[in-house]
Write a structure and sequence with these properties.
Blueprint lengths: L1 H15 L5 H13 L2 H15 L4 H16 L7 H5 L2 E2 L2 E2 L2 H4 L9 H16 L13 E4 L9 E6 L2 E5 L10 H4 L3
Antiparallel strand pairs: 1-2, 3-5, 4-5
């Protein structure tokens, strides 16, 4: 599927080159190379199950926690790895253990997929982290008793990060973010 998308976008850009100089198309081609449909689908599935009833900021916050984990040490390096990770036999996201599947034909899923795609492609470049670098969240009606730094409440979720002394990151992309 990813190969087909690249081929389609490339052919569109070539067809449009008579109208738009290729120099303007190069950034689009670079972004296509960053595109990983499987990872975006995992991110969209997670947003769908964890925040489908939330406003836009609530959905974005779930996406950001997922992406923040890919950048933090101690978590898998890929979105799918983060979403499907099991720690001591427990799923990190409850919907995974219940084997729930999203309705990918719905308008809601298509909207969430676009949000996931935008977050995935722009995470390290231009997405402002409204969760304040959170790595965890839970519903407001739950009290897990975590010994973590509470960062923010968005919609019906409470977000947490590790204590500053415990934070270790893989790269520069998270460390320089707000």
């Amino acid at each position: 599927m990813q190969r087909r998308i690249r081929k389609l976008i490339t052919s569109i850009l070539i067809a449009c080159s008579s109208f738009v100089p290729l120099a303007h198309a190069e950034p689009l081609l670079e972004r296509v190379n960053d595109l990983d449909v499987k990872q975006i689908r995992c991110l969209a599935d997670n947003i769908y199950h964890e925040a489908k009833g939330e406003p836009h900021d609530g959905k974005l916050a779930v996406a950001l926690v997922t992406m923040n984990r890919t950048a933090a040490k101690g978590f898998p390096e890929t979105v799918c790895g983060v979403v499907y990770e099991k720690t001591r036999g427990f799923c990190q996201f409850s919907w995974v253990c219940r084997n729930l599947f999203p309705n990918r034909d719905s308008d809601l899923y298509r909207q969430i997929y676009l949000l996931a795609e935008n977050t995935y492609l722009n995470y390290s470049k231009s997405v402002t982290d409204i969760t304040k670098r959170s790595l965890y969240f839970h519903a407001v009606h739950v009290n897990p008793g975590w010994n973590l730094r509470r960062t923010v409440t968005i919609g019906r979720h409470v977000f947490y990060g590790k204590r500053e002394r415990d934070v270790q990151e893989r790269g520069e992309n998270v460390g320089s973010r707000p």
